[in-house]
Inverse folding.
């Protein structure tokens, strides 16, 4: 309240997420903020996909004071702030359709076991040229703005300037960025966020996606977190670094282990591997997600772990000398279009299942899995991730752990929505089919 007064903030945006991770918001005046913090703000939940039914529509948005941030406002606009909200029922109980509640519930279970859960995602995305009218959608097929590759250093190209402005904007908002770089594909870029607790990071991912798009739009270009927007190049991932802390100490670290991995870390990794197929529909929730998860484009396909083998699903980055807190694992399947609240929730739940049930970690994958035959992988007991959204939903529907984590409300709506998406996709005749069959058949 003091900041609002001192900075002459006139409006406060109240943000929340629908089940698919689409940012939603409404705006209140600064005069209403105190009431919002004390009592919440009522809105019609039936208007939001995956929220209330019409007959039970009204819900409350309760702003989380810890998420207060001033939004960048170039030019002469009045200062605007934003706060992320928890959504609750009118009686104050948590609303079952709120993705924040899903993540908080599994984080509370980890806390009951003595653990704090930290994540650090790497968000990849593309910049594309818009149509002749800067307010128009990008051309189809999309047109890249550069032909750069990994770590290319350029001084005057528009995408690099836009990325730098984006990072500075995030830093001004108090969001620490660890790295930013050009990625492998033309016009593909990456922003890596400094690790923090999973709830704060999920809020941050929602904010970063918005800022990336808004800064791009100010420069007359488009940014997209679509997992695979271009044929023939790699797609965009959200490699996510995970760690558990216990009493201020990294629970994944063991000085005597050859990989510096504790028993807790090994069982956590085993949980990720055992439940990988079941949670892929959540970490990779779009039809387009599975155009990225194919052999030949650096995305993980096979369920395995390794230290230096980037064909594995789970990678164990080397622990920095003298920095035990840096011990972590990297789960490489998620893409940046996932709902971060649900994605972090299922990753944590799978890892906790491995810890609580004492899962045994299989042997490290020492070979390039892309080069092995199906028979060789089968002999090693290495399964593949689902190859389509439909296959991923089949695995998810049979999963007790994912149903328990998401809760009945989110689980049932998510599956129903995604089955509808798959049905629409199957009915669509694509440009590929026109090119391949129209004159030949």
């Amino acid at each position: 309240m003091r900041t609002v007064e001192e900075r002459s903030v006139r409006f406060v945006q109240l943000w929340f997420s629908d089940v698919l991770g689409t940012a939603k918001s409404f705006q209140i005046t600064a005069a209403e903020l105190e009431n919002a913090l004390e009592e919440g703000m009522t809105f019609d939940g039936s208007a939001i996909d995956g929220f209330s039914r019409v007959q039970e529509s009204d819900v409350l948005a309760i702003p989380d004071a810890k998420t207060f941030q001033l939004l960048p406002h170039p030019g002469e606009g009045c200062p605007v702030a934003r706060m992320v909200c928890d959504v609750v029922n009118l009686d104050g109980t948590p609303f079952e359709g709120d993705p924040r509640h899903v993540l908080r519930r599994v984080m509370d279970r980890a806390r009951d076991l003595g653990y704090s859960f930290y994540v650090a995602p790497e968000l990849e995305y593309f910049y594309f040229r818009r149509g002749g009218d800067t307010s128009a959608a990008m051309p189809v097929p999309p047109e890249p703005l550069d032909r750069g590759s990994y770590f290319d250093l350029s001084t005057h190209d528009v995408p690099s300037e836009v990325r730098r402005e984006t990072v500075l904007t995030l830093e001004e908002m108090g969001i620490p960025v660890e790295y930013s770089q050009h990625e492998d594909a033309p016009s593909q870029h990456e922003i890596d966020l400094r690790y923090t607790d999973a709830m704060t990071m999920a809020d941050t991912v929602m904010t970063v996606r918005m800022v990336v798009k808004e800064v791009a739009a100010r420069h007359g270009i488009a940014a997209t977190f679509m997992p695979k927007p271009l044929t023939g190049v790699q797609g965009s991932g959200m490699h996510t670094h995970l760690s558990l802390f216990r009493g201020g100490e990294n629970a994944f670290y063991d000085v005597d282990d050859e990989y510096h991995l504790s028993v807790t870390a090994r069982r956590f990794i085993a949980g990720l591997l055992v439940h990988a197929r079941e949670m892929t529909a959540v970490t990779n929730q779009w039809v387009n997600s599975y155009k990225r998860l194919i052999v030949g484009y650096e995305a993980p396909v096979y369920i395995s772990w390794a230290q230096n083998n980037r064909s594995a699903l789970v990678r164990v980055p080397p622990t920095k000398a003298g920095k035990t807190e840096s011990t972590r694992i990297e789960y490489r399947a998620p893409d940046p279009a996932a709902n971060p609240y649900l994605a972090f929730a299922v990753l944590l739940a799978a890892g906790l299942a491995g810890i609580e049930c004492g899962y045994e970690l299989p042997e490290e994958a020492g070979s390039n899995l892309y080069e092995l035959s199906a028979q060789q992988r089968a002999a090693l007991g290495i399964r593949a991730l689902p190859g389509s959204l439909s296959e991923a939903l089949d695995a998810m529907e049979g999963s007790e752990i994912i149903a328990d984590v998401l809760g009945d409300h989110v689980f049932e709506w998510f599956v129903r929505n995604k089955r509808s998406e798959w049905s629409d996709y199957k009915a669509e005749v694509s440009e590929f089919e026109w090119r391949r069959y129209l004159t030949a058949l």
Summary: The mean pLDDT is 88. The radius of gyration is 22 Å. The first helix runs from residue 2 to 6. Residues 2-89 form a domain with the Ubiquitin-like (UB roll) fold (CATH 3.10.20.70).
